Amino acid sequence: MPGDSVEVADWLAKSAEDRLAAGLLFPHGLHDLVGYLCQQSAEKALKGLLVSLAVQPPYTHDLQQL
Fold it and tell me: How many domains are there within the chain?
């Protein structure tokens, strides 16, 4: 059974927001913040993928663990 489509959409929307913010900040030289936002975007996209596969994502920020 596929995961909750509303929860998947929420994770992917949050991922897209982080990705957009990173793109807006990059030209201003805020590279540490851009790196953080890119990591957050990837994390949220992976959690959305897991939910779409009906897998409860673990509470972690470790991309390798996800």
Answer: 1
Give per-residue pLDDT as tens, 25-43. Answer: 999 999 999 999 999 999 9
Q: Is the pLDDT of residue 4 over 90?
A: no
SS3 59: coil
The residue behind tokens 């996800």 is: 66
List CB contacts of 66: < 8 A, sequence separation 6 or more. Answer: 43, 46, 47, 50, 57, 58, 60
Residue 35 lies in a domain: yes
pLDDT value at residue 13:
98
Distance, CA of 26 to CA of 35 (rounded, Å): 9
* Containing structural domain, residue 39: 5-52
Instruction: For residue 47, report the phi and psi dihedrals to the nearest 5 degrees.
Output: -65, -35
